[in-house]
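Below is a filled-in request sheet from our internal design queue. Each sheet records the structural input a requester submitted and the sequence that came back. We keep these sheets so that new team members can see what a complete request looks like end to end.

REQUESTER: design group, bay 2
PRIORITY: normal
MODE: inverse folding
CHAIN LENGTH: 367
BACKBONE (tokenized):
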């Protein structure tokens, strides 16, 4: 993402999810801290869901603003809905319903530095908020040294990791699925904040992509903590597994995660996602399930299970937002006949973003 302005149409749940991710990236590019990026993204998510709940359609404009030697972000959410009859009541805590993250307009106001609202019955609503970036207090020499270190680190090649599902089940019968993953750290890092978990238990295959907030060793530590929890505690009840994972990450910077369980004999996959992970099928059909907004370890909405069927000529792919969301079979037609390990590596190397950790898990039926 580049530039100083971003306009987002809000007319569906997926739009609201994308707005949260886009806002976080926009704030990160401006130089906001990790905590402020999360606050900005949460505010945008809440404003987007207010639009959906009360107007059904609207837009959010995110802009870089500069004044009095300060740099910040301004977010304007506008709709043409019924408007707010009693703004004073709307600004009271607990006015928000369960359709949003539960923060309401008062929560948005607390998250941001400046807050304005203009609404009247029949004329729609416009909410404008601003967040100012803290001015760094470290000396110029320190900043220059950091820049030199970053330039040096970018000359090092990151170390990818990959893996496949064991060829045989515990009873010695060859598995009917081909499953593999590939993970690549972002440019300049030696370890990734993305980790993939792939396991088989009886007639179920469990897949998880974990995307910890940030990059480098700190993010890797969080992702590893989540992976270790899932390896010992995952259940076919993915909603419960996600709730327990959320609790296990309390006290960390947090993460996004996509969890999937495949019932091998039934060609049916169940998915639960929080944050910015994507799951879809490619092949004869292109089906997709959606993650709910939130950050594991901090605040999430109620986990919701979704179902996907995998046809004999279809491939299931689960990946983090380090991979471009919009790519189609036409962009990679060889996917139809390649093995899972080749597909996972190719998706990351061809569609991955250099400035972000990227990971992809792939599952297809053999034959």
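RETURNED SEQUENCE:
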């Amino acid at each position: 993402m580049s530039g100083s302005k971003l306009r987002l149409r809000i007319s569906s749940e997926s739009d609201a999810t994308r707005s949260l991710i886009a806002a976080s990236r926009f704030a990160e590019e401006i130089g906001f801290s990790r905590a402020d990026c999360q606050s900005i993204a949460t505010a945008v998510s809440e404003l987007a869901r207010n639009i959906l709940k009360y107007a059904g359609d609207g837009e959010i404009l995110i802009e870089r603003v500069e004044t009095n030697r300060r740099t910040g972000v301004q977010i304007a959410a506008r709709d043409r809905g019924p408007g707010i009859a009693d703004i004073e009541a709307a600004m009271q805590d607990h006015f928000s319903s369960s359709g949003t993250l539960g923060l309401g307009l008062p929560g948005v106001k607390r998250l941001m530095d400046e807050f304005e609202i203009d609404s009247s019955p029949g004329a729609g609503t416009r909410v404008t908020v601003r967040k100012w970036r803290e001015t760094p207090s470290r000396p110029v020499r320190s900043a220059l040294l950091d820049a030199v270190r970053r330039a040096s680190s970018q000359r090092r090649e990151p170390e990818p990791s990959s893996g496949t599902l064991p060829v045989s089940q515990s009873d010695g019968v060859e598995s009917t699925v081909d499953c593999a993953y590939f993970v690549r750290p972002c440019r300049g890092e030696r370890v990734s904040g993305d980790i993939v978990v792939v396991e088989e238990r009886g007639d179920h295959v469990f897949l998880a992509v974990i995307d910890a907030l940030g990059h480098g060793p700190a993010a890797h530590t969080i992702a590893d903590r989540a992976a270790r929890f899932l390896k010992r505690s995952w259940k076919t009840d993915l909603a419960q597994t996600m709730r327990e994972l959320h609790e296990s990450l309390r006290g960390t910077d947090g993460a996004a995660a996509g969890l999937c369980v495949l019932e091998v004999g039934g060609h049916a996959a169940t998915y639960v996602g929080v944050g910015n992970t994507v799951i879809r099928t490619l092949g004869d059909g292109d089906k997709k399930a959606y993650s709910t907004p939130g950050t594991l370890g901090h605040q999430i909405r109620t986990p919701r299970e979704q179902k996907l069927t995998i046809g004999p000529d279809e491939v299931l792919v689960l990946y983090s937002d380090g991979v471009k969301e919009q790519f189609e079979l036409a962009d990679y037609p060889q996917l139809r006949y390649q093995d899972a390990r080749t597909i996972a590596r190719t998706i990351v190397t061809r569609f991955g973003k250099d400035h972000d950790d990227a990971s992809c898990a792939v599952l297809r039926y053999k034959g």
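SHEET NOTES:
- Residues 94-102, 137-145, 147-157, 167-173 have pLDDT under 50 and may be disordered.
- Residues 313 and 337 are 9 Å apart (CA to CA).
FILED BY: M.R.
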